[in-house]
Amino acid sequence: MSEKTSPAPELVDSHCHLDFPEFDGKMDAVRKEMRANGVTHALCISVNFGGFPKVLALAEAYDNFFATVGVHPDHEDRTEVDPARLVELARHPRIIAIGETGLDYYRSSGDLAWQRERFRAHIRAARECGKPLVIHTRQAAEDTLAIMREEGAAEVGGVMHCFTESQAVADAAIALGFHISFSGIVTFKNAAALKDVARAIPLERLLVETDSPYLAPVPHRGKTNQPALVRYVAEEVARLRGIRLDELASATTRNFFSLFKEAGRRA
Question: Which domains does the chain have, with CATH numbers?
């Protein structure tokens, strides 16, 4: 990846999976690219209990990495998730959120009651430990929002990560105290509707992310994504909104540390 030459904007990658095999043995290079592109911090996201120690180890090893604890909605192990277990793991000072959690009706089929119960368990844990939620929803927006309301997710707030839904869904999530995070998808040419949403979200509710190693933004589409590339996401959102990159970066970084208060205390 070529390094940017313009001034560093001080961005945060609010959602990445640096524990995945694509990054094994490459963390020095990943962090070098982050510095070159003005990406100061990254939130490493848990997707299952088995991988959690590796996620936590990243946050313990690097003072500008933070971590979450949670089980992804389409994780193949359908064992019931105990809220008490999530709460206990979330006591660690480097854990700043619960998730990623939510509903995914795209990858799973049949009776998905187990997915909904898993989501409820995460919301209950978040409320108990007072940490925000990182929510994934795909082809399940109506049920996702309904469960958020029923379980009191507004009490802790959080972020709708890798947002690809409609303006109406964004508005409903914002009404519940949630932020909206855009990934590399917003840079894709066929994402016209999503670009409109990115223009309309209140600036104080915006976040940017990579979802590394997936969804590399244009002009790196199809390659392995990494936190440094969140700059391209931010550049596109700034362009869509008609504001400077540094303004967008300042707002999204401020939003990140305002939402994830534990990160602000430990940054």
Answer: 11-266 (3.20.20.140)
